[in-house]
Task: structure prediction
Amino acid sequence: MKHVASDDVPSRDREVDPECRETWLTDFFADRALVIAANRGAVTLQQAPGGELLFEYGEGGLVKALLGLCRSADLAWVACALTEADAAWGAGQVEMDDGTSMRLRFVVPPPEAYDGYYNVIANPLLWFLQHTMWNLPVAPVIDRATWDAWEEGYVTVNRLFAEAIAKQIQARSRPTLVMLQDYHLYLTAHFLQEQFPEGERPTTLHFIHIPWPGPEYWRILPPTMRQSVLEGLCRVDLLGLQTREDSLNFLRTCELHLPRAQVNFKRGRVWCDNHATYVQDFPISIDVEALRALAESTQVAEYRQEIHEFVEGRRLILRVDRIEPSKNIVRGFQAFEEMLELYPEHRGEVKFLALMVPSRLGVDEYQDYMEVLMAAAGRVNARFGTSDWEPIRVLVGENYPRAVAALQLYDVLLVNAIADGMNLVAKEGPIVNQRAGALVLSERAGAHQQLEPGVLTISPCDVYATAEALHQALVMPEDERQERAARLRWLIQREDINDWLYRQLKALDALNL
Ligand code: G6P
Result:
């Protein structure tokens, strides 16, 4: 690696002054309304025991970034109802305590339709396909039940989304931009366009947050499903993906599996059924300012104390993930085990903390994975643990302030995903870390495209190389750690979440859409 001190880092013409960006956004939305559609709502409702309705923001950086648009745009958010109170709400204007105001409209599918859409198609099938997670001799098994879930679940819910968006557009008598999010809604643009005569169709921008594998992998999906996904996405005006590789893979997939489409690789355009879809990568990021503010809060300081007590002056290897097979948690523990075997000097000197957030428990693979990873950690502890040293500690639960505190204190952050659209932990860590910690990063995480100059790169299945990288990270000289940490901070803060959003809208504008 070529070392670059933070002061030497060149400035980038891409950086945009926040004030100019706000002005530009206000102008952009002066004559158009905005509908965002995503599986999860920006706000979710709960009914308190006294009957009072409680409004809570959905978790995550995406909600915050998109909500920022309330300042500039007349925004409506369409999502699946996740609580009874959501379902009872239907549609209406929401005024949050912080002054944020938006229209919130819930799609309320029958429970079996939702189950097929979320627990059979979107998560096991599409998610596993796009993260290349199948062990093909045994999975996937696409049986009658899967087809039912496709037809009565995924197709139905996508149609309901399209109807809800259309209703929302018709309620406003202005041109509307529709921003669709992610793999739950691949067919929505297709159904949405059916609701409007040609010439009156809303502009649509669809962003896919997860990887897009090459066309060979898409061949595993039955042709009817594959065709519907591609035709749906080719109704979109601008399709955003995380990385250049994802965009190229999308174009190649259309070229191979949608023979009537004309693909122009140079312009990043698919022409199909008299319609152009522009394809471009917009790597998502984090809200650097909000994260820094949280990191300075007293709540995080209290957790920091807790983590200090856990670490007991030793070195800390950290991972923070949803309990998700694509995160490759088990191989991470195996790599730590291998490192302890190869470099006994680390025994008793390093602790591995795994902060694990439960996820998608309605899907069998996720439930099973929890047991598998606990057993893997238990094996390492049984083999190497002593009366005063527990090599691996797994903490399960959703606690973002605690995760931020741990991110401040790691010596090594391990992100070894088998495949990942971006991986925001890899961007959050270097921003808040106080110890010039090293980042061991999988070359199959989207974040690797931007962060490569500052990380220790690993191939996620190579446990031996991961063990070596963990060792290297622990023994790295202080000046190299500092240089890499500075480089990572610079790479991350120059393109934060606001930039992600702004670049998509600028691209639309440049296309006159
Ligand atoms: C991850 C992915 C997103 C996806 C989300 C859904 O965060 O990166 O692309 O939308 O999971 O998670 P959920 O908990 O709603 O199934």
User: Anything to note?
Assistant: The chain has two domains: 18-285+497-510, 289-493. The two ends are 42 Å apart (CA to CA).
